[in-house]
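Z., the sequence and structure:
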Amino acid sequence: MHNKLLISLIPVVLTLFSGCSAESGAEPNSAEGDTGRVSEALANPRLGVVTGGDFLVKEGALNAGWVNETSNVRSGSLSGSRIAVTTNDNHCYVKDGELNAGWTDEHPAAADCSLAGDRIAVLTTDGHCLVKQGALNAGWTDEYSGVMQCLIAGDRIGVLRTSDRHFLVKQGALNAGWVDEYSNVYEGSISSTRVGVIRFSDLAYLVKEGDLSSGWTVEATSVVRGVLAGDRIGILTHDQIFSVKEGALNAGWTTEMSGVSKIALSADNNRIGALVNGEFFVKEGALNAGWTDEYANVSLGVLTSN
């Protein structure tokens, strides 16, 4: 029963939601190829939700209107001007630019795909971590095989090796060398400056800051999900309590919400998301800011990634 609960609380990606009317978006399989555009930072942040297989995205204020980007979606990712979805038939589609831009079919066998700046990562259905950088039609680099996590943030890549549950991270070029960060890992997490691991033996969440060889700080115990973004750390504990800290690794925690199943932090250090009984709530600004109920009947919510 313990393991079943843990598995049920771990989402494939981070997500958000809201409840306004949606406009119709382009179907992924109708899109043309990439234009060579490189993702740029947006003045207006985006958030997205998966609801009934549709991926809805809004841009700007929390009360902005929704655009229905596409259907048949399992998960989504947002970074700058790029949007990615993983469909139920395991395709990874990415668009760059306006919300109504066309899609590029990036990979036909994706268990998950994610975005960070001008990088795209795909965890393939056979356990390869593939990453590309630059244009949407750039070539893939096969970073590692036999993995169950494939993460990107800034110029970092992280993988969780399936055979022995070692979490490895590299920084810099796509062909940089790996650092074996920790063994016996339940789940890993990365940001552009931090690395986190949930230790399998006791569900302690450890985080390091700065160099990949720096020391670890034990942040909390009984953790089933850890998220890193900017100078914020978010944790979801076994009893479904969502807490966030801001600043130094030894800063105090703020309890954000209880009864939570999925959590999210935005890369701009400004938004926090929590999924509770299919309702996605988002707050903006300080850790003690008020919540906005964004959408109902949500399976996944997404905030802008690193």
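The chain has one domain: 2-221. The first helix runs from residue 2 to 8.

Let me know what you think.
H.
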